Structures are given as structure tokens and as C-alpha cells.
């Protein structure tokens, strides 16, 4: 199938040095010139031929100037005009068919070959690389940047999730997340945002002159709530203190036991030193009295009698 796109037309124009349509127009113009020349020659011949030879009847003149043919010239002009119109119509009709056939079947390039045709004057031409042509290093850098941006995006999403969770917890603590649920606890701090004094202070203009007074009034207004929380925490503090006291007593007993064990160990080592016992680490302790040097020498002499040299 022929390709009639702009790319195929440009390829043929560059190869032929003229557009395909201009060739068809030149052919049609040449044929029209031949038609005009033929009609002009025919007109000259008819006008130069005597009218009586063309079959026109002469009208006799009363002055003796000879016969006249008043209808000859008009009929010749009308006939030539009709002939020219007929020839032009025939040429246009048939050469339109020729134009369609030539553009589709002769001056055309198949659609699957347009991108593969290389003209002769493009042979052995090397194109310099573009200044903005990507390199392997630039592509790798872009990949690293993309990976880093994705990692940052994931970290930001995780941080956003953590922040939202923290905000929900804080709103629940100050009593803004579970109004009307009845699940209030002793650690509820909603009085900081929902107290009557706080709402009263919100309507007061916070100017530099009144800031200290407003803050003092707000702190004083919260003292009853703080006293209630303190009264609630005192029993828990006492229980915690008692548990810590029991642990301290047990730790004191262990410390005394260690001191006693260390004292006994120290006295034992001193006694062993005075008796001349070995103080080497992991030395075995043999019960009984101390053996003198004379007894050792006597035992060696006795052993030599049974084992003579």
C-alpha cells in the first residue's frame, strides 16, 4: 500500500527535485496548450476560408459591393468556443484519472519502506551527537535520584501516619476525640480545653498589658482540677512507695549477707596463712595437723630403703 503522508511526499520531492503533483500539473498544462494551439489554428483556417466554401449562403448587396455573409463569423466563433469547451472538459476528466493513478501507483513509496529509504546524498554521513543527548552516567544518576525521591516519599508517608496517630492520641487525651462516649479516665486532661474559665478567657483580648493577668487567672482557675488529680494520685503514690520499701529491705538483707560472707572468707585466709597452708587459687584443703620437715625427711629415708639406687 502506498504512503501518501507528508514524509513520503518529502522523500519523493527530495529525490526528484520537484513535487510529484507539479509533474502532473505540467503534463496537464502541456495538453491544454496543445488544445489552445489547435483551436487557434482551426480558427485561423476557418476565418481565412471563403464562407461560400463552408456552406454559408451569400446575401446580395444593393450597392454592388459583392455578396455578404453576416452569419459566418458568428457561427465560426460559436463553434470554436463549443469545441474548446468540449476539449477542456474531456482533458480535465481523463487527466484527473491519470493524476490519481500516477500518484497512487507510480510516484509513491510503500508505507513500510518510508522510514528505511536512504537517498544517495545521505551516504557516509555521520551526525554529531546532540548536546543534550543522555549518557549512561546521566541515566544512572537520574535513576538514583528517582530511587532517593521514592525513599523520601515513603519516609514522609510513614512520618505522616505516625503524626496522625500521635494527634489522635493527643486529642483523645485532652478529650476532643471521644466526646459523649462516657469513657473518661482519671488521666483525662480535657479540663485544659473545655473548662468554663478557658472559654471565658477565649473572649478576652490577649494584649501585652493583660497577658500576665489572663495567664494568672487561668492558672488559678485550674487549681481545683489539679487538686482533684493530686488527690487521685496520692493513694497510688503510697502503694508505689510501699513496694519500693519492700524491695529496699530485701536488697539491704542481701548486702549484709554478702558482707558476712566476705568477712568469713577473709578470716579463713588469714588463718591458713598463719598455719603455712597453700593459698593458691583452687587449692585443695586437707584436714589434719601440720607435717614438720623432720617427719618428711624420715619418710624419704624410709622410702629409699625399699627403692635402692
TrEMBL record:
<dbReference type="GO" id="GO:0000444">
    <property type="term" value="C:MIS12/MIND type complex"/>
</dbReference>
<dbReference type="GO" id="GO:0051382">
    <property type="term" value="P:kinetochore assembly"/>
</dbReference>
<keyword id="KW-0995">Kinetochore</keyword>
<keyword id="KW-0498">Mitosis</keyword>
<dbReference type="GO" id="GO:0005634">
    <property type="term" value="C:nucleus"/>
</dbReference>
<dbReference type="Pfam" id="PF05859">
    <property type="entry name" value="Mis12"/>
</dbReference>
<keyword id="KW-0158">Chromosome</keyword>
<protein>
    <submittedName>
        <fullName>Uncharacterized protein</fullName>
    </submittedName>
</protein>
<keyword id="KW-0132">Cell division</keyword>
<dbReference type="InterPro" id="IPR008685">
    <property type="entry name" value="Centromere_Mis12"/>
</dbReference>
<keyword id="KW-0137">Centromere</keyword>
<comment type="similarity">
    <text>Belongs to the mis12 family.</text>
</comment>
<keyword id="KW-0131">Cell cycle</keyword>
<dbReference type="GO" id="GO:0051301">
    <property type="term" value="P:cell division"/>
</dbReference>
<keyword id="KW-0175">Coiled coil</keyword>
<dbReference type="GO" id="GO:0000070">
    <property type="term" value="P:mitotic sister chromatid segregation"/>
</dbReference>
